[in-house]
Amino acid sequence: MFLSKLIDDVLEENKALLLDFHFYRELVYKLTYIFLDREQFLFTYRPMPFLERSQFAVSGLYDYETNKKIITLNLSSHYRKFYIHHHNWKIFKFCVSQVCQHESIHQLQWQKRDNSTFVQEPIDFRLHPKNTDEEEEKNYLADPDEIDAYAHDIAIEIKFYYPDQNPYSILKHIRRKRKG
User: Fold this and answer.
1) Which of 24, 139, 159, 180 has the greatest count of CB atoms below 10 A from its CB?
2) Count of CB atoms situated within 10 Å of the CB of 157
């Protein structure tokens, strides 16, 4: 998959540095530092009141003006530290890698087109979900760049969650795999 070997290798090479209890700022500093020479990733964190201590989510944004890929760790607002251990390492690494790849796709999309006529910034409804109506969300998800990046996300999710199964079989029977 796109850049997965590079990103996964960087994370795996630094696994010993990342496994532990970390203050949120310390964790994003370490992640930014390990990617400093390889990619333009800037890690941040956002406290989220609905997340428990062990829960996390990863989101991202490509900033075309600075050519930076901003990766946000969404962590519990009830605590100041996050624990990465052997039991959650695989999913943590996957989530960080997936968002890094997604935003790298947007970076290449932006760099490969003529943006001299670009007028309006794209809207990322994930940043302001309560302030965005359903029509804006539909427009965002219908954007060809998002379809391209999310198709890649789906492909790597199939590879991660169903490693021993034929991906076409998974897609063919996707309704059986849906939760709830």
Assistant:
1) 24
2) 13
Q: Where residue 144 falls among pLDDT bands split at 50, 70, 90?
A: confident
Burial 68-97 (b: 16+ CB within 10 A, else e): bbbbbbbbbeebeebebeeebeeebbbbbb
pTM higher than 0.90, yes or no?
Answer: no
Are 82 and 27 in contact, with CB atoms under 8 Å apart? yes
β-strand partners of 76: 48
The pLDDT value given to residue 171: 86
In a domain, 145, yes or no: yes
The DSSP string of 89-126 is HHHHHHHHHHHHHHHHHHHHHHHTS--TT--SPPP-TT
Of 111, 9, 11, residue with least CA distance to 58: 11
Does 98 fall in a domain? yes
Q: How many domains does the chain have?
A: 1
Residue 32 lies in a domain: yes
> Does 117 fall in a domain?
no
